[in-house]
Structures are given as C-alpha cells and as structure tokens.
Amino acid sequence: MSDTFTVTLRRMALLALLALVGSSLGGCSASDEPEQQAPVPHVRVETLQLQPLAITSELNGRILAPRTAQVRARVAGVVLKRVYREGSDVKQGDVLFQIDPAPFKADLDSAQAALARADATRYQARLQEQRYRELVNDKAVSGQEYDNAKASLLQANAAVAEAKAAVQRARLNLGYATVTAPIAGRIGRAQVTEGALVGQNEATPLATIEQLDPIHVDVTQSTREITALRKALRAGQLQRVDADQASVTLIEDDGSAYPLPGKLLFSDIQVDPSTNQITLRSEFPNPNLDLLPGSYVRVRLAQAVQAQGLSVPQRAILRDSAGVPKVLVVDAQSQVSERQVVLGSVQGDRWVVRDGLAAGDQVVVEGLQHAKAGERVQIDTAPQATSVTQHTGQ
Predict the structure, then answer these.
(1) Residue 237 has what pLDDT?
(2) Residue 149 contacts by C-beta under 8 Å, 6 or more apart in sequence?
(3) pTM of this prediction?
(4) Any bridge partners for residue 219, and if so which?
(5) What are the phi and psi torsion angles at 384 (to 5°)?
(6) pLDDT value at 331 more than 50
(7) Which phi and psi angles does 163 have, rounded to 5°?
(8) Per-residue pLDDT for 111 more than 90?
(9) Residue 218 per-residue DSSP state
(10) Taking a C-beta distance cutoff of 8 angstroms, is the pair 279, 268 a contact?
(11) Facing residues of 179 across strands?
(12) Under a CB-based contact definition with an 8 Å cutoff, are residues 169 and 110 in contact?
C-alpha cells in the first residue's frame, strides 16, 4: 500500500513539473513581439555645381602712410610759439611754429641796403662808361681808359646781382622763421617747446605729419606662390584678373574685414634676398582714420579666376584616423557611399575640392552622425552655395 502511494506521489510531482515548464514556455512565446525596424535617417545634401572660383591670396603686411613729412627747422633761432594743436589735422601751408624773426628781419634790411649801394655804384659806372665811349671815338681818352670803365660797369652789374641774391636769401630765411606744413595730414606731438634753440648746425626735427587718407598697405608674397600662379595661368587652368578689377579686402588685426574695398597699386620688381619675397602695395580709403600706420593687417587679394571649380562646406568633411579627408555622397537610389577627396585651400566656411567629386554629386552636409556607407537615407535638400573665393595664400 505504501509503495503504490509513493509511486502515485512521484507521478503527480512529475506532471506538475511538466505543467510548470509548459506554462513557462507558453508564456514566453506569448509575450515575445517582432523586432521593430529602425527608421530611415534623414540627411540634408548639397548638389555640387561648377562655378567660377576667385583665386585669392591672403598675405600679411603693415599699414604705411603714403606721404610722411618730418617738419624741421631750416634756420637757427629760438622757438617763440607752437601754433598747431598736437594730434590735429593740418592743411598744406598751415603755420606750425614761429621762430624769432628779428635777426632775419635785420639781415634782410642789411641785404637791401647793400643792394641799394650796389645799384648806386653801377649807376656811376654806367655813366662813366657812356662818357668814355664818346671820348674814345674823339681820341680824347685812351682805349685803355675806356676798357677800364667798361670793366668797372661789368663789375658793378655783378655786384648788383650778388646783392639781389643776398636779399633773396635773407627773405627766404625770414620766411623760414615761420614754419609751415609741407603736406596735408595728421600731425603728431611737438618735439620742441617754446624757448628751445633750434637749427643750430643741424635741421632740428620739430614734428611729423602723415597723410592718412587714402592709406597704403604693403604685403609680401613668396616667389614660390607667384611662380605657381604664373604656371597655372600659362597652362590655361586659371584666368588673369586685371589690376584695376582685382578685389582687395583688408583683414584687420582682430580678424574683422575692413568695410571699404581697396585697389592694387603695383608689385615690386625686385625680390628681397633675405626672405625671397616680393612686396605688393595696395591702397584703401580711410575717411574715418580707422587705419593707422604701423598696424599689422592681412590683405585678401584676388589674383586669378578658375572658370569652373567645385567646393564643399567645411562641415561636410570627415577625416579618418590617418587624417585623410572624406565625404558622404548619396546616389540616385538614396544610398550612401564614402568618397575620398583631395582638398585645396579653405576660404570662409568652404573647402575647394581638387579631386574626388564631380558636378551633380549630392554631398551630405547635415545628419552625418546618422548616415552610414551602404545604408539608405531620406534626403532633405539643403540650400545651394552661391559663390566661392579660393585662398592660396598664407
């Protein structure tokens, strides 16, 4: 009886275990749901188009005043007065300093008196020469006496000319006592004060005037860049930009662009042997005197034009672990592929593409983090680029 009961209990336990296992398996099957498909990522693309690219060079240089005049004392004397206000704008001919004119006035009076005396002597010599000319014809005086009278007249004429020159010199010295501005511009601080003795054995500097509007900017470019540009022009890869049509933009030391455009004046004909660079000079309007001589600036100079070129936004460029630039391109079936590119120079927020892309390619510019090579994407078209300027400079 006990054996039968034991067997019955074992069967009941086995059935309960099997029921529990079946229930668990049935519950798992009921709760499992089919895996949801990942959504197609959305990206924005830019369709590349061939367009003219302005080949520019960004060059370093400094601002220079077109005209600089160092005002100096041209006569010796004591400074009585400084007439101008330091740091002000002056016009050509404005009075700047007044040197004591009394000694020069006295010299002028003395020279005029000497001229009057020379005139009187010449008058007497002329009369004597006239009398002797008549008498020598009548044999009343000898030829030697007439020659002496004529020589005296010539000497008297020379003495008058010398006296006139002395008067002119004295008048000039008197004028130099009033120091005027040789050019128009902005004048700096005075280098002498009232009571200073100036012009003693040297031309004492008094002040400096600089013309500031318009103003010049001298930049330098390496002969290597110029040679490469010339080769491209001769090969027909680029088109030359005329000097009067060249776009010149000034980049100030804080990185901002100067609002007024400039023009290229000339490029030097000699190479600096110490730097192997050539100097180029440009001119900019400076009506508000924002540009001051000596300031460090950069100049963006358009030197040529590439008739047909491609560029991509900087944000579209990806780089692998080796630093090789790549882009993601979407084909007609909305499938993404990876494309290695050769980049030129950067300008603004765009890269110039030398190789690896063609007109009509759709380059991913937004949503790069979601797009992967070999997968499909949903395309949202981005606004197209309008213009590009290629920088080849430093």
Answers:
(1) 57
(2) 125, 128, 129, 131, 132
(3) 0.61
(4) 61, 280
(5) -80, 155
(6) yes
(7) -65, -35
(8) yes
(9) E
(10) yes
(11) 97
(12) no
Residue after which a domain boundary falls, among 210, 242, 269: 210
Mean pLDDT across 30-48: 69
| CB distance 389 to 56 below 8 Å | yes
Average pLDDT, the chain: 80
CATH assignment of the domain containing 229: 2.40.30.170
Gap between the Cα atoms of 317 and 306, Å rounded: 22
192 shares a domain with 91: yes
Q: At what angle do helices 102-137 and 143-176 cross, to 10 degrees?
A: 160
Tokens of 245: 């049509």
Alpha-carbon span 283 to 213, nearest angstrom: 9
Rounded CA separation 310/350 (Å): 10
Q: Which sign, positive or negative, has the C-alpha torsion 384, 387, 393, 394?
A: negative
Predicted local confidence at residue 247, as pLDDT? 73
Instruction: Looking at the chain, list the stretches that DSSP marks H as alpha helix, in order from N- to C-terminal side.
Output: 2-31, 102-137, 143-176, 223-234
Confidence (pLDDT) at 17 = 59
Predicted local confidence at residue 394, as pLDDT: 41
Q: Which amino acid is at 318?
A: L
Read off the pLDDT of residues 162-171 as tens digits, 9 standing for 90 and up.
999 999 999 9
Q: Note the pLDDT of residue 1.
A: 46
More confident residue, 88 or 346: 88
Contact 212, 206 (CB under 8 A): no
Instruction: Please tell me whether residues 222 and 369 are part of one structural domain.
Output: yes
3-class secondary-structure state, position 174: helix
Please name every residue paired with 336 in a beta bridge, in sequence order, or none if there are none.
Answer: 330
State how far the Cα of 159 lies from the Cα of 161, in Å rounded to an integer. Answer: 5
Q: What is the mean pLDDT of residues 275-299?
A: 85
Per mean pLDDT, which range of 25-34, 167-176, 333-342, 381-390 is the poorest? 25-34
10 in any annotated domain = no
CB 73 within 8 A of CB 199: yes
Q: Tell me the mean pLDDT in the region 117-122.
A: 92
Q: Give the H/E segment covering residue 31.
A: helix 2-31
As a whole number of Å, the CA-based R_g of the chain is 46
Retrieve residue 196's tokens. Answer: 């200073």
216 bridge partner residues: 64, 283
Q: Where does a domain end: 159, 190, 210?
A: 210
